[in-house]
Amino acid sequence: MDSLLRNNNLVRVIAFILAVILWLVVRAGSEGPGQTTIIDRVTESISGTADVLVDSNRVSLVGNPPEVTVNIQGERLAVWQAKMQVNKIKFVVDARGMGEGVHEVPLRIEGLPSDVTAEAKTVSIRLEPNLTRTFPVQLVIDGVDPAVLRDIRTNPLDITVFGPASLLDQVQKIQARVPNKILDAPGSEQTVIVYAVNAQGKPVNLTLQPKTVDLVYQPAVQRKTFSNLQPTVKGLANGEQIVLPTGGLSVTLEGYGVSLIKVNPADIRITIDVTGLAPGKYEREATVEVPPTVKLADPQPFRVPITITASPKTQ
């Protein structure tokens, strides 16, 4: 039961029903034969946030929309009904046509029952002229070397900021946060939201045009050589040995910088198939497997000079 009473909506409904019953009882008792009906009128207050209408192409409201409290009068039941449904009532401050400065604007209330009236009230607001400034987009990224930002193309390069002068003066830069996943897909396009931020790095609520920018990661292709790699030999007959180049094999890979950084020597698998070869010297084509984000710098087949010898016991 306690949990039900803690439900504000349920309590309001119960109170409204009791008020209706009480009103009916009082009304029935006061309307007996030969008696004059007494209308039970009351005054109550309702509160809400005003919706301020302005010529947004010229001026902006300074600060947050005002909170207002208004007295309403009428029959008890109608007034209580209005209080119960206050979320359906609109408080409107129509400042369209007004320019820069402080204004006292009549408050208009919409959605009251026809037999309920509201007191006349004005609301003080301050309007500022809208200004326009252009800022270059600055990119930020977390968790990786910021140097990769130089390889990211931004479109457009500049953002137009529109709003009141007091807020425009707070803007230090326009920021776009780069998602790390863009580094895994060079050449693909990502659309991100831009923000106007102040000196503390906090967003400033202004109109930005456009609200997003397109990013493309286009790093320069680089090369990296991996040395001392040991291949896997396949098909070597029993009693035979293979002699490989001294110091192992070297492979040069080509790819974007961030992709090359992630490659380890163990990711490069070289296989030499000598099935059916008799002892002797050969230049054998090897199979080289590398991560999909990079490729061999030399498109020509990877050939390895080898020597197959018979063990002393079989000679």
From TrEMBL:
InterPro entries: c-di-AMP_regulator, YbbR. It comes from the Bacteria. This is YbbR-like domain-containing protein YbbR.
